[in-house]
Design a protein that fits this description.
- The complex is a heterodimer.
- Chain A is about 0% helix and about 50% strand.
- Chain A has no helices and 11 strands.
- Chain B is mostly beta strands.
- In chain B, the strands form 2 sheets. In chain B, strands 2, 4, 5, 6, 9, 10 and 11 form a 7-stranded mixed beta sheet that branches.
- In chain B, β7 and β8 form a beta hairpin.
- The chains are: A mainly beta, B mainly beta.
- At the A-B interface, β4 and β5 of A face β5, β9 and β10 of B.
Chain lengths: ~110, ~110
């Protein structure tokens, strides 16, 4: 069974700090997606990474896919209260759409 | 596009009653997914459809759960009879090929 472990589970920081959250697996994924979920809403796709070693930037967010395609990280620079939410990673095996496995997420709180 | 539309947003029902959750996917998307989210287990895939055909329902907890997709613009998830352990947030998501999922806002189900 493929599993995605996310760490830390909870993170509370002050506005302006930097942070990194991690997504790890013992399995190889053909692609990995990151979502952000705000309270009372569904997850919203932030980025998809497909190549080992790939780095993508989205304003203050930097996403990296591990060389072996088993892990990924999300780095946020100068966090803002608007970054607060649950960050989910999801891995696909390149096969059927239904094989998108979600981690349990990192709950981030950014205090002003 | 209005996005993925789910109804109702909240449902409170008594144990033993039938519950029907509804979903309208994004027009043109060929995949539809039903997920359940709890604090303990995170996001769990229940069932998914491709071009209105159920592909994998191995995540459906038991025979009390059923899902249909009679056409490309509508899907239902039914629980009969409902039990307190079914209490969760149920999400519908749709996608076109493998370009990331668009989630609805979810239905928060409480079975008392």
């Amino acid at each position: 069974t493929q599993l995605l472990e996310q760490s830390p589970q909870f993170l509370s920081i002050q506005e302006g700090e930097n942070l990194t959250v991690y997504c790890n697996s013992s399995s190889v994924f053909s692609s990995l997606q990151w979502y952000r979920q705000e309270p009372g809403e569904g997850p919203v796709l932030l980025v998809t990474v497909v190549t080992g070693g790939e780095v993508k930037k989205l304003k203050r967010l930097t996403f990296q896919f591990g060389d072996a395609r088993k892990d990924s990280s999300l780095h946020i620079t100068a966090a803002q209260p608007g970054d607060t939410g649950l960050y989910l990673c999801a891995g696909g095996d390149g096969g059927s759409q239904g094989n998108l496995i979600f981690g349990k997420g990192t709950k981030l709180s950014v205090k002003p | 596009d209005a996005g993925v539309i789910q109804s109702p947003r909240h449902e409170v029902t008594e144990m033993g009653q039938e519950v029907t959750l509804r979903c309208k996917p994004i027009s043109g998307h060929d995949y539809l997914f039903w997920y359940r989210q709890t604090m303990m287990r995170g996001l769990e895939l229940l069932i998914y459809f491709n071009n209105n055909v159920p592909i994998d329902d191995s995540g459906m907890p038991e025979d009390r759960f059923s899902a249909k997709m009679p056409n490309a613009s509508f899907s239902t998830l039914k629980i009969q009879p409902s039990e307190p352990r079914d209490s969760a947030v149920y999400f519908c998501a749709s996608s076109f090929l493998y370009y990331g999922y668009t989630f609805g806002s979810g239905t928060r189900l409480t079975v008392v």
